[in-house]
Write a structure and sequence with these properties.
The longest helix has 10 residues. The chain has a four-stranded mixed beta sheet with strand order 1-4-3-2, covered by helices on one side. The chain has a four-stranded mixed beta sheet with strand order 5-8-7-6, covered by helices on one side. It has two helices and eight strands; from the N terminus they run E-H-E-E-E-E-H-E-E-E. It has a single domain, classed as 2,3-Dihydroxybiphenyl 1,2-Dioxygenase, domain 1 (Roll). By secondary structure, the protein is of the alpha/beta class.
Length: 123
């Protein structure tokens, strides 16, 4: 069996802001609670799951520091997504630029995680 990614979990002390940010880039988040666990939000695509859980206040590592995480998403219309993020007071780190993979932009979520967006020529 080939190894493939199936799960990413974010912890955040800013759960509502982080939820709105990821909804702004197009993730359809569902509220969930497993047993007595905390209410959290989940996005499922095929067998891949992203969950956003409440966490304690902490400093997010600088994006180049050990422990930092940068993830990327393909989007249909990068300019439309960036307009939504502007309305949500999100941070655009790198404006849309043509690359080999398509139009690329980098955003920062409310916790300071770098998020790459690609509007692929094939999406």
């Amino acid at each position: 069996m080939k190894t493939s990614i199936n799960f990413i979990m974010f912890r955040t002390s800013k759960i509502e802001a982080v939820k709105k940010f990821y909804q702004g880039i197009g993730l359809e988040l569902n509220e969930e609670q497993h047993g007595n666990g905390p209410i959290h939000y989940s996005y499922v695509q095929d067998q891949f799951v992203i969950e956003i859980y409440p966490g304690t206040e902490a400093n997010t590592p600088n994006w180049k520091d050990s422990g930092a995480l940068m993830i990327g998403f393909y989007v249909e219309n990068i300019n439309k997504v960036i307009l939504k993020i502007d309305v949500l007071k999100g941070k655009v780190i790198s404006s849309p630029t043509e690359t080999d993979r398509g139009i690329r932009a980098v955003l920062e979520d409310p916790d300071g995680r770098r998020i790459e967006l690609i509007e692929s020529k094939e999406v």
